[in-house]
Write a structure and sequence with these properties.
alpha/beta, 4-stranded parallel beta sheet, 36% helix, 14% strand
Length: 292
């Protein structure tokens, strides 16, 4: 059997993603009861932090340890002098799985091709699959699995890794994703007919889930202040809709400070699901079938 990598959500099928979300919900219940079974006991995981950020790497280390795995921070980079084939060989000597946060998706795919161990993408500049799985698990926990069918996701966000993984999800799952942003930052050549881009903020009115991402570095307040999520905009959301801005949130830019306190803003609760979603991915990648 070939190894199970998670590099992009559209590499998976809907059945696999559904199973991951179901396992995340089960793992969350066990976590909350402090009754997580050590289903990864004896497994050894390499954690590679090849760029900044802390939330998903911290959640990966904590969650894997709770499942009984040994997690080691490996201070390597995919952009050094060493060939990726050589690096993969050394990591395979000691580890059962490689979890890595690194800028280049293409380099990550190259490492996965060379490695015997499964490779889990914790973030690239192109996509952020575990982040999206965590948000989807949050939705499933509140709406049930049937709540994914026809889920309307609106992203007030530029083309980037957050929106990239939502586009990937829309290519596989029965959800629609609409980007609402000035045309200059629209996604081009999206591989999904359930994705659309518009500059019209009226598209948020029917959203079930509203997400944001940081302003692009080449933007000015004059470019994007009209697209800031504030209290007035959140009052337009349908009853029961959730607002999940992607951290790190810059208050006063993509989100106003008071919007972070609005009842629809679910960001702390939603991001708790990152740990459970990643734990489900680890169990799937390492072919651990029993439920915890």
């Amino acid at each position: 059997m070939g190894h199970r990598d998670l590099l992009s959500l559209d590499d998976l099928d809907a059945t696999t993603i559904t199973a991951l979300l179901e396992d995340a919900v089960a793992l969350a219940a066990a976590w909350n009861d402090r009754d997580v079974l050590p289903s990864l006991a004896g497994r050894r995981i390499a954690l590679v932090r090849d760029d900044g950020g802390w939330r998903n790497t911290t959640a990966l280390a904590l969650g894997a340890a709770e499942l009984g795995a040994t997690v080691v921070d490996v201070p390597v980079t995919l952009s050094g002098r060493e060939s990726l084939a050589d690096l993969a060989g050394y990591l395979d000597n000691w580890f059962d799985l490689i979890a890595i946060r690194s800028p280049s998706l293409s380099r990550l795919r190259e490492l996965a091709d060379d490695a015997e161990a499964p490779v889990i993408n914790l973030r690239t500049t192109s996509n952020h699959p575990c982040e999206t799985l965590g948000d989807l698990a949050h939705v499933v926990a509140r709406r049930g699995m049937a709540g994914l069918d026809g889920l309307r996701v609106v992203a007030i966000a530029p083309e980037g890794n957050i929106l990239g993984s939502w586009v990937e999800a829309s290519a596989v799952l029965p959800i629609t994703v609409t980007q609402v942003y000035p045309e200059r930052w629209h996604v081009e050549d999206a591989p999904s007919d359930r994705f659309a881009a518009t500059a019209d903020l009226d598209a948020i009115d029917d959203a079930d889930l509203l997400i944001t991402d940081c302003w692009p570095t080449d933007a000015t307040p004059a470019d994007l202040l009209a697209y800031q999520v504030d209290i007035d905009l959140l009052t337009r959301l349908a009853t029961g809709a959730h607002f999940i801005p992607c951290p790190p949130v810059t208050r006063g830019e993509e989100v106003s400070a008071d919007a972070m306190d609005h009842s629809s803003c679910q960001v702390p609760a939603a991001k708790a699901w990152l740990l459970h979603a990643q734990n489900a991915v680890l169990r799937w990648a390492l072919r651990t079938d029993e439920r915890s």
